[in-house]
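User: Hi! I'm working on a homework problem where we have to compare a predicted structure to a textbook description. Could you give me the structure for the chain below?
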Amino acid sequence: MSNKSKKIGLITTTSLVVGNMIGAGIFLLPATLAGYGSLSLLGWLFTATGALILARIFSNMSKLFPSISGGPYTYSKAGFGDFIGFLVAWGYWISIWVSNAALVTAIISALSHFFPILKTNSILAVSIGLTIIWVLTWINSRGVSASGKFQVVTTILKLAPLAFVIIVGLFYFDIDNFPAFNLTGNSNWVALSGG
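Assistant: Happy to help. Predicted structure tokens:
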């Protein structure tokens, strides 16, 4: 297989980045954060700022180490040695396990609104969750190209409802719908750290 056939295009790489940035949280967190009031918007702003700073750090690291690739593991290993590189790789690997479990939990939770039996039949819910994990694992095992194509489809499925809500929401926008800045009864700093 030639090197060119292993490459993925701009649309696929963009979908990978967008798909990783827009996770289940964007659909689930607004309902959770609504109890904090408009203060929760600052949480989104701080998180976005942190993501941009992290992207800039990785951009700078790729310029400092142009001959290596591999992200956090290789940069940690190059800067601090094998042990720290191992800890970063191990921590990242564990975070992926937790993320997969959280993603499947979010999917089953969303499906339970349409199929209430999933709330009462835990065997069915677990079976569907495991099926989702195995199907995604199978897609990923087929290679970067197959994973990339699937990512393009899922990114479109993520962006379509967001675009719909934004466009429709523009026609119903009313500043009076915004809740008070802090609904928690705690200080702004306490509420911000909680949200």
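For your comparison, note the following. The mean pLDDT is 83. The chain has one domain: 13-194. Good luck with the assignment!
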